[in-house]
User: Which sequence fits this backbone?
């Protein structure tokens, strides 16, 4: 029997382990919690396997560290999530770019 998604998230280890403080997940900005929730929700809907996402995250973290990239954990999480969505055909690069532009310009602000 496979682990439930929340159990697989809880046992992520090493550089892929979720930031925690006193056992609780730590998000420093609202978008971090949102992208975390979207990744978990789409996995729950079986859009992809958790292992597929985790493998992308581990690869993203390793590549960033090898390149001396100082991006934060959830920036790497977001890059992994976006690349997975594109690879699975759930969203196009153009759609992501358009939505990012809406937020950057202030046209869309859900806070």
Assistant:
């Amino acid at each position: 029997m496979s682990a439930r998604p929340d159990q697989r998230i809880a046992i992520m280890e090493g550089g892929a382990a979720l930031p925690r403080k006193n056992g609780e997940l730590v998000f420093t900005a609202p978008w971090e919690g949102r992208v975390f929730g979207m990744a978990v929700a789409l996995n729950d809907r079986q859009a992809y396997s958790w292992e597929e996402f985790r493998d992308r995250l581990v690869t993203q973290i390793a590549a960033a560290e090898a390149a001396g990239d100082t991006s934060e954990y959830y920036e790497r999480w977001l890059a992994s999530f976006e690349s997975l969505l594109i690879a699975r055909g759930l969203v196009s690069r153009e759609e992501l770019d358009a939505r990012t532009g809406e937020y950057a310009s202030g046209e869309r602000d859900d806070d």
About this structure: Residues 41-111 form one domain.
